[in-house]
Amino acid sequence: MRILFYLLLALIISCNDNKRSNTDNSAPFSDNIHVDDDFYFEKGIYQVVDNVYVAIGYGLANSILIVGDTGNIIIDTTEDPELGKQINDEFKKISNLPNEAIIYTHSHVDHWRGAPGFYEDNTKVYAHSTFQKGFFDQNNLLRPILTERGMKQFGHFLPDSLKRGHGLGFTLNFDFEQPPVIYPTHFFELQTNKLSVGGIDLEIQHTPGETDDQIIIYYPEKDVVISADNYYMRFPNLYTIRGTSYRDSKSWYKSVDAMRSYQPQYLISCHGPFLKGEDVIEERLSIYRDAIQFIHDYAIRGANAGKTPDELVEEFEYPPFFLESYDLEEKYGKVSWSIRNVYNGYLGFFDGRAVNLEPLSKKKRARHIFELIGSKEQLIEQINKANNSSNYQWAAELSDIGLLNFPNDKDIKNLYSESLENLSQIEKNPIARNYYLSEAYELSGKITPSLEYSISAEQAKNIPLSTFFDAMGPRLDPIKAKGKLIKVGFNITDLNETYGVVIRNQIAEVSNSYKDDYDVIVSVDSDTWKGIILKTESAARAIASGKLRIDGESIKFLQFSSLFVND
Q1: Of 124, 334, 361, 472, whose Cβ has the fewest other Cβ atoms within 10 Å?
Q2: Mind listing the pLDDT tens digit for each residue in 400-426?
Q3: pTM score over 0.85
Q4: CATH number of 360-443, picked from 1.10.540.10, 3.60.20.10, 3.30.930.10, 1.25.40.880
Q5: In CATH, which of 3.90.550.10, 1.10.10.10, 3.40.50.2000, 3.30.1050.10 is domain 465-561?
Q6: Where are the domains of the chain?
Q7: Which residues contact 541 (CB under 8 A, 6 or more apart)?
Q8: pLDDT reported for residue 135
């Protein structure tokens, strides 16, 4: 069972080491700025105000330093421990006080994975309590698919010569070596939380937006708001193509309103430069939240008028303020994806047309369409015709039909690849471009994506044991479990925790207790059980050494253990 982590998000910026003065980052950006300009992410440590600094251009996410009376406060840590250490070394030149606290603004990997580079023996680590679900969903339940799609989204597998910006940075700095996970030690439980650390008083607000666990941080003494990922000077990713739980756009723009309510003099985004000046910040945030509300309200109005998501996307007209704002350029999120997300978030997959209640599978539809076309030669002719007339989307869709009928046909694969490459050339959104190119190169055999990785028991030490048990349901092989009824209880000896796992009806029910009638009771410490799950420790050796004890029907435990698959 290779569980966990890490996601995807992680872009690192190829920039020079010259530091641009950050005293006027609130000035309007030039209209000719594009995603490949290093102006926007120029690498350096910038002073925002006395005792507040931001590291930009080291990784995807900024890292922020607040120098307190007795210690440093680190807000977000980038995606990589080595990058984190580089930043920490620079921060220590400013303040050599101990790192008293690390605060994660949310559970995206680029905000917490670099924490080993900052962590010290007595460092406290803070996040909102909802961080746990976000972390679990991304790094456990959905890790395989999110990782695969995320790597394509960020162009991880593309040759270096094809790597371009991703809206928030340049190249993906990510490998499959798992660093130790520095899991939060303290959680904010309320909507508004007060935190005193290092002699500094902070206000923490739970502000769902890009993630449900998002927080913003207000430093009253300096009149600084840290926006997390609820504002980053790009059209927001109201939906991400790597896949995500519903991003509630209504909650998002209300969270921007929470930032506005402070009327701060300084606004630090966790991506890109900071803003200064109350009027400038109010103007930029107002436009940003208005854009989110515009998309939300447009989709709702259209849905109530009986429009389908396709129709809503096709009929959308950009209001003037969209076109005039640099912050709303679609260099990270896209309006079309966002409209579909709002519709589906409220109404689900069904578009209201009866024909779409039980649509044919893509494979069956492709078979019927191919019958209408007549032959593979005629299909290829139509694909070439579409490509030659710059109708690249239709060429790609025809190629997809061809590949579903002839999965191993090299000519169709090459035409499909050509169609996707053509789409990438006209696509302005960097994420979409990378996805087109990644699939094009995979189809043509130019790249072979590999997503193999594992974690060690040492790396898993700070991950709550509950996440391992919660993953057992999706990991159950329902074919092997057919007709099985097995009840296993667990005593976790070092944590004073109990778990129950019942196999029935081809599912695994996981609970926090077990009953006397269970077939097997397993007594084991948490590290040993994690090691067994991760295949870094032998169950037989654990039994022989006394680290794991089985009471009850041993054969049932062996049957139970054989029902789960590695992902």
Answers
A1: 361
A2: 999 999 999 999 999 999 999 999 999
A3: yes
A4: 1.25.40.880
A5: 3.30.1050.10
A6: 44-233+266-287, 360-443, 465-561
A7: none
A8: 84
